[in-house]
Amino acid sequence: xxxxxxxxxxxxxxxxxxxxxxxxxxxxxxxxxxxxxxxxxxxxxxxxxxxxxxxxxxxxxxxxxxxxxxxxxxxxxxxxxxxxxxxxxxxxxxxxxxxxxxxxxxxxxxxxxxxxxxxxxxxxxxxxxxxxxxxxxxxxxxxxxxxxxxxxxxxxxxxxxxxxxxxxxxxxxxxxxxxxxxxxxxxxxxxxxxxxxxxxxxxxxxxxxxxxxxxxxxxxxxxxxxxxxxxxxxxxxxxxxxxxxxxxxxxxxxxxxxxxxxxxxxxxxxxxxxxxxxxxxxxxxxxxxxxxxxxxxxxxxxxxxxxxxxx
Length: 311
Ligand SMILES: [Zn+2]
What we know:
Helix content is 39%, strand content 17%. The protein is an alpha/beta fold and 311 residues long. Strands 2-1-5-10-9-6-7-8 form an 8-stranded parallel β-sheet, sandwiched between helices. The chain has a two-stranded antiparallel ribbon with strand order 3-4. A hairpin with a 2-residue loop joins strand 3 (76-80) and strand 4 (83-86). Helix 1 (24-34) crosses helix 9 (292-310). The radius of gyration is 17 Å and the shape is globular. It binds zinc ion. Zinc ion (ZN) is lined by residues 162-164, 244, 246, 287-288.
């Protein structure tokens, strides 16, 4: 088997104001890093536009209509303090979610062992009715519900290692006992949620806050002692990763001190867990990561390990 890479040039058309951290150059750097002979064996697929039915499993129609109606014909409109839409944003966001449903198809059909969605905008801050934190739709949540409802899986786990709490994913899925959501994140930090006492409406949420300045050693400890064992107990049939790389020491938006090597280690350990519980089935989707060089280096390392483990 192999690793699938899902992306689309439309994801390069989502414009944000000059100086905004979530910029087109992020994905350009990621795609340039993946444009290397060592990634030749990868199964490259265009991310489709997600179907409305797939969005409707996590967002009410009013939210979907609001986002569609907000898309400007030109220029840039502001949806909240740091979330914007340009002419190309709608199709970028629809493809970011569609990359996740298509990745589920590829991994569950056995066409790919695992998959990475190189997409933007990110999704893990989008709540049911609220775009926020650069996010319009909850792409990983959409993929998770798709795996449960369309493919009939009974248990899906999400590991969110973005430096920010995945409040949107938690909001969209915490009522569903077929989902286990585990997040590590810096606290205090945007969006302000993700306390350890937030355990989910179905007792299916594990939040592990990390102190500013903490490093990869602390990350490895909490994953080994808390996050990985709890996900294993859930016995997932598929593991999603909300793969944000903004816990890197070089990142301008946060204050954790993980190295590229730490992300490499974490990817290996999540693949180990997937091997133990779900025949190695992993779908990873790009969330944050705002230092362009660190982001590109981390994604390349992450995908390299997925390939190694999926071979
Ligand atoms: Zn983030």
